[in-house]
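User: Could you walk me through two proteins back to back? I'd like the raw sequence and the structure tokens for each, with a short line separating them so I can tell where one ends and the next begins.

Assistant: Of course. Protein one, sequence then structure:
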Amino acid sequence: MSKKLSIYIVLITVVIDAMGIGIIMPVMPDLLRELRNTDLSEAALWGGVLSSSFAVMQFMCGAAVGNLSDRYGRRPVLLVSLFVVGVDYVIMGLTNSIWILLLGRIIGGIASATQSTASAYMADISKPEEKAQNFGLVGAAFGVGFIMGPLLGGLLSEFGSRAPFFVAAALSFLSFSVGYFALSETVDDKIRRPLELRRMNPFKALRHIGMFDGLGVLLIMLLFHQLAFFVYPSTWSFFLQEKFVWTARQVGWSFATFGFFIALVQGGLIRFIVPRLGDRKSVLVGLVVTALSTVAYGLVPQGWMIYLIIPLGSLGFILTPALTSLMSRAVPDNMQGELQGVLTSVGAIAAIISPLVMTASFSYFTQPDAPVYLPSAPFFLAGVLEVIALLLLLKSFRQLPKKKPAN
């Protein structure tokens, strides 16, 4: 299979998978209120529990999945992940129990390897100077899925809070079918390495990657950035419903707009920005923009102003592909899967902690007896975390080598 066709197949798979994720986000507050027969504040707390349980399993399994893909290949790992995620959506769509919904999130966390495996696939087929752009394509594909997913989820909400889950399952199984018949393998004997159980331990894998010069500080910086980022998936729907009384359809439109501009930046503008700024400056600019936009979301007095910030804030999404490229070039070719697994684990640590903290802060400041009514509190907290990440980034630049180490 040609390199270009391989890229198209991977991107299609990521788009369909992202649609499955995005399609359920607009209806999650309504489903939780339905299952628990409660108000938005308590539903937000349950949303945090579900997000964190997903992330716990993602953290525990992220390094293992990355190492498995280095040993057995990207294709089988990706296919198993897509199939199990499809089953997960079916479980969530059928259940009338919050505890079965929690079990579904645990299963989903174990199998959540799609984007990291796709990134490892891209690393396999990319030249060093192409990596930031190709990692950007993965992010753009995810953004396209987020354009289509929340829009569809908002429309399907008219048929009840369960309908989006069954459509998400169908999308996952469709993605599985596309990958099964059209996706080639990129791991060959040149880069295949033996499976080492000790490196499937997420803590040891983090320590191993962190031993490369500068990468330890970068991983901590990424953790703080991800802690801030998870304010969006964990509280965005609740925030918009509470502060501006938006419907699920309006929330879906905002997610779709968010996804559109992410796709525009990571799929198009990044090809002009990163080659001119370089990976390091691109990460720096992206982090500054992200910090400012996060605080801006919390300050807006009217809902329509959200749409003014989204195009500007989306420029910060040059950060992720540039950072992934920077770190990918700092480790050998036969460790790309392990690196992506570690990056998944870092994101999972943030996803364990952040939703609980963000939804708790939202719940606290929106309760009737709150000392001050402040539904924007999670976004201000996220702004502080981004500033800490910025300081760590500046420190890492003094340690990170400019050339990739020899194998």
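----
Protein two, same layout:
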Amino acid sequence: MQKPQNIKGMRDHLPQAMLLRQYIINTLTVVFERHGFEPLATPVMEYAETLEGKLGDDEKLIYRFEDHGGRKLALRYDQTVPLARVVAQYAGQLALPWRRYAIGPSYRGERPARGRYREFWQADVDIVGSASPLADAEIVLVLTDALAALGFPSFTTLINHRQVLGGIARASGLDDVAASGVYRAIDKLDKIGTDGVREELLRSGVTDAAATRILEMVLLEGQAETVLSELGHRLQGDERALAALTNLRAIVAHLQAMGVSPERYALAPRLARGLSYYTGAVFETISSHWPEGSLLGGGRYDELIGLFANRQVPTVGLAFGIDRLHDVMEELGLGPRLQTTAQVFVTIFSPEQMAASLQLTQELRGAGLNVITALDADAGLGKQFKEADRKGIRYVLVQGPDDLARDEVVLKDLGSGEQRSVPRAEVATTLRALVKTTRR
């Protein structure tokens, strides 16, 4: 038998990692539901044809296979295409506009790298059935609130519109077909730099003068209104591009009205987003603490659901990568640094005191505390204290014969080393106060 190992690009998450991941998921869920988003779960497996033809160049990353009945199936690539299927399949049961969130694993057959895995978890939020720029702004607000709730010290959400990129390509003398090559090249800007993008544009048939004009526009930076005004000047006469700029102005105005700090977002003409189903505004959040790329991203896709529903259903959304958030938070020391779910360890002084210890344990659990006991009544207190310390449990309780006689419990704080006797009737209240204000 070969040495036990997991598949490359698919990770095991041991308890300490899982506790941080659960904290991330629980925090995101609270934020999503505070904004009125409702949960949805779809199977991790779809018919292959459901996913095919929706992902552009990324379609080669789909995991495909046949089951025993010869059906062609695929593992979920993301949460977006399954959402489109659901909206078409259950059209009569969904009240639009619909705010939906979904959390679960997806699979991509790509080369594993830091923050990029073949099995990964995503938390998606989408607003289905609204073309309003307010819906786009609300998605940006949700991601801003979510990252703030997770404790991220700095991040910026880049915002662009696919028709702005299209307008930049057209203003440089390219047609819509050639513009797709511009999207692909610009999407690699952070990886290959300005010179690399220029070379890629030239290889795709773009002239040197056109490549210069494209790079001048996509590299525009500054205050949102400054960038929008400059683009408006350069893209005069292109109705689709000007309509996109009007849309972006509305999104920015809504963000301002919602109180989102201007430091949290920026207009970025260079932002392309690789997936082919985006049709309007696109978003990508970056942080100086994660130089490998974006923390998360998304955008408006008004035509994808129509591939299933035979009618246009405007939709906007984004996906949080749980694995990427976990890796960044672990590096920055964000979130609780828990080793275990248990908050209290109840020792067994001797076999004769076992019943009293078990009774105390159940009382504390009933009071809302996470409690475990020793499992070997013959183990000495020293060994039990070492077990609690090894597991990362800070508070240990001892109830010997004398303590029982006085109706008291000895409370030992392994973090500070302090020890004191507490009246039995006050133990639960005392521990709840302690675990609320201290962390191991």
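The mean pLDDT is 92.

Let me know if you want the two compared in more detail.
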